[in-house]
């Protein structure tokens, strides 16, 4: 079956989850490869079996080379222990999971692989079209689409889990699309996340030399007083082989200067520290 037909089949099977990005009315039909809302707004699926649920086109900084490096590092397992930690927070029963800011999609595909649950409904979205194009190449039952965090193209309370890896949050939208009693999961870097790169790429006086997540964790706790925090920390060996991709994949290197970057390429760090918190909250049942 062609990818566009698979995409149309997927949306048809889960039509009740989607809504029109223009007028916010729930979709009521899909005609071949075109979603049609009750007010007549149409949205075409593309050849990759994906769709762009945006009112206006948006440019992002996440270009294809950066995402390709990210794909390489994540396929090599850079975030695998984080995916494992997130998987442990989820019930074993079938879940409808939304991955916010899915990027090139590997963490969601790895979560799918780990859960091995045929009845899971997995949807990943990102503002980056380049990211979603890469995501649609993954072998996974997850559906990937372009959408805006602030205006999610999903109906109210249609997900059991809303999760995000290193993405900004829009709590009001999360609570709208997640069902009462569902889970919100947020992965945030801790102070030592990629500290070797941080220290190699910046002088001690630069603001990027240090990082603290206190404010982000506090904000999550203000929204969800019942939240739990699970810390995950490990070393990931990179050496000479991976350093270029490692530098390309992280926004951390964007602000550093050429002398720091070439110095790090000449003398790569042996490994990087991955240090994150998995914040988990259960929404009130109401
Ligand atoms: Zn509409």
Report on the architecture of this protein:
The protein has 286 residues and is an alpha/beta fold. It folds into 2 domains: 49 residues, no CATH class; 227 residues, 3-Layer(aba) Sandwich (Rossmann fold). Helix content is 33%, strand content 24%. Strands 4-7-6-5-8-9-11-10 form an 8-stranded mixed beta sheet, sandwiched between helices. It has a 3-stranded antiparallel beta sheet with strand order 1-2-3, with helices on one face. Strand 1 and strand 2 form a beta hairpin. Helix 2 packs across helix 9. It is globular and about 60 Å long. The mean pLDDT is 95. The chain binds zinc ion.
What share of the residues lie within helices?
25-40%
Q: What is the CATH superfamily classification of the largest domain?
A: Vaccinia Virus protein VP39
Q: Could you say which overall geometry the principal axes of the C-alpha atoms support?
A: globular
Associated small molecules: zinc ion
- How does the major sheet shape up? 8 strands, mixed
CATH topology of the largest domain: Rossmann fold
Query: Could you tell me the strand content as a percent range?
Result: 15-25%
CATH architecture level-2 label of the largest domain: 3-Layer(aba) Sandwich
Which spans have pLDDT < 50 for at least 5 consecutive residues? none
Please tell me the total number of domains.
2
Span between termini: 43 Å
